[in-house]
Amino acid sequence: MLNKNIYIGFDKTWLSLDLQTWRDLGSLFSDLIEEVEPKLIIEVWSWKGRSAITMAKHLKETKRKAEIICVDTWLGNISQWDGEKPENISFSKDLNLKNGYPQLYYQFLYNVIESWVKEYITPFPTTSLIGSRYFQKKNIKADLIYIDWSHDYLDVKLDCEEYLKILNKGWVMFGDDYKFPEVKKAVNEFAKKNNLKLKILVNGAIWKMKWK
Questions:
Q1: In a domain, 59, yes or no
Q2: Residue 17: inside a domain, yes or no?
Q3: Is 30 a member of any domain?
Q4: DSSP secondary-structure letter at 23?
Q5: 5-14, 80-89, 161-170: which has the highest mean pLDDT?
Q6: Number of structural domains, the chain?
Q7: How many contiguous H segments (helices) and E segments (strands) does the chain have?
Q8: What would the DSSP string read from start to end of 83-140?
C-alpha cells in the first residue's frame, strides 16, 4: 500500500527505547480489535508509537493479518510547541530538537523496530489532511480509525470529518483527550451532525463512535 522498505538501513545506534505514555490503553485496544476484527487500522498522530505498538503486539499475539498505518508529521502540534502540559506532563522537551528540527520520527522508527512489530506498522509522515486525501484518492478504506492528534477544536473537527470519509460502514472511529473542552465540543458536534452514537470510555477520556 505504502513504501514497505522504510525500516531498511535505519541507523538506530544513537537512540534508546522511549515508549512515553501517560495512560495504559492496552485493554481498550485489544477489546476494539477483537470487536472489529480490522484488516486496516489508521492512527492519526502516533507520537513515539506506544499506541500503535500496543495494537500491533495484540495483532501479533492473536495471529491476525492486519496493517496499521500511522499518519503523523512527527513535528509536534501546538500543544508541544507552546509547552502545554496535559495531566502535568510536558511534551515540549520531547520534540528532541536538532538544529531546531524535531527528531521524533526516528524515535518512532526505533521504538517500532525494537518492539519487533515493524511488519505490522507503516508510518506515513504527512499531515492528517494530506493523509486523508491520499486514502480517498486511492480508495483505501479503514475498519478502525484512532484519532489522537490535537486538543484544538478546528483540528479535531477537521480530522473527524475527513477520516469518516475513509471509514468502512459498520466500523469504528475512536479518539483520546475527550476531557479537553475543545475536543469534547468538536466530537459532540460531529456525532450529532452525523447521527452517530457516541460512547465515552476510560474514565471519560476516550470517545468512540460506530458508523452504521
A1: yes
A2: no
A3: no
A4: S
A5: 161-170
A6: 1
A7: 7, 9
A8: T--GGG---GGGG-EETTEE-HHHHHHHHHHHTT-TTTEEEEES-HHHHHHHHHHTT-
Q: Residue 139's CB: how many other CB atoms inside 10 A?
A: 7
DSSP secondary structure code for residue 151 in this structure: S
CATH number at residue 79: 3.40.50.150
Burial 87-97 (b: 16+ CB within 10 A, else e): eeeebeebbbe
CA-CA distance, 4 to 37, in Å (whole number)? 23
pLDDT of res. 72: 96
- pTM for the model stands at 0.90
In which domain, by residue range, is 164 found? 35-210
List for the chain the helix, strand, coil content (%; round to 5).
40, 20, 40
Amino acid at site 29: F
Say which residue the cell 524535531 belongs to: 102
Q: Position of cell 511488519?
A: 119
